[in-house]
Amino acid sequence: MDRTLEEILEAIWKADETGDGNLQGIQDKCPIPITEGDLEALERRELLKQQGSRLSMTDAGRIVARSVVRRHRLAETLFATILDLSFEKRESLACEVEHTLLPEVEEAICILLGHPTTCPDNKPIPPGACCSAKRKTISSLMTDLTDLEEGDTGRITFIRSQSHERLERLTALGLTPGTLVRVFQTSPAFCLEVEGTELALNRDAAEDIFVTKVALSWLTDRPEDSMPGARLTVFGSNLKS
């Protein structure tokens, strides 16, 4: 769904929590201007009903809003408890993540955090299916990078690291959620091919990267003598933290 429409539905959800269901109260909680065209688009999709200056979501609209709010508050909790980010930083990042977080990553974060019921601002986190089922382990569809074998390809779904510096380094190397990686060596360094670039990680860093294994031959095998070993060693040593 369009990000703008998700933002408006999220704002209506938050306004409902505080009893400010009129248009001005909703606009105060929305980071973007709400236009008449946006409201008409939500009505056409049967996600919203207008009654004068009051806006109310349909059941379908509440499902969308609930999901966005859940992703935002889970992400905010992760950034606060694991990475110890400031309010401004975690809020900014959560506003981005809420629109892109994959369902399996959302569940993994919830399980990792022990199914939190409130975010750092003491606002309720809508429970997910994993909460009602009291799941304690991340789905077997998702595994950390070290479980892949040579030749396997995986899509990065989540990076867990208590080191903000390490997380920034991994991101700078192109290791971000949604990226495809192919393992071509597991010892002594853990070596990957990422969008045409070859990287090496130490095992600790590789264990922080969770992937979903995919059956995809998107890269061709390379002869061993073509691998730039010096560059791999540099990347590996840089990530020992």
Fold and architecture overview:
The protein is an alpha+beta fold and 241 residues long. It has ten helices and eight strands. The strands form two sheets. Strands 3-8-4-5-6-7 form a six-stranded antiparallel sheet. A two-stranded antiparallel sheet has the order 1-2. The longest helix is centred in the first third of the chain and has 23 residues, at 59-81. 31% of the residues are buried.
The average pLDDT score comes to: 82
The CATH topology of the largest domain corresponds to: SH3 type barrels
User: What low-confidence regions span 5 or more consecutive residues with pLDDT below 50?
Assistant: 217-241
Estimated helix fraction: 40-55%
CATH class of the largest domain: Mainly Beta
CATH architecture of the largest domain: Roll
Supply Rg.
Answer: 21 Å
- Overall tally of domains: 3
Largest sheet: 6 strands, antiparallel
Q: Rough shape? A: elongated
Structural class: alpha+beta
How many extended strands?
A: 8
Concise account of the structure shown:
By secondary structure, the chain is α+β, with helices and mostly antiparallel strands. 43% of the residues lie in helices and 17% in strands. It has 10 helices and 8 strands.
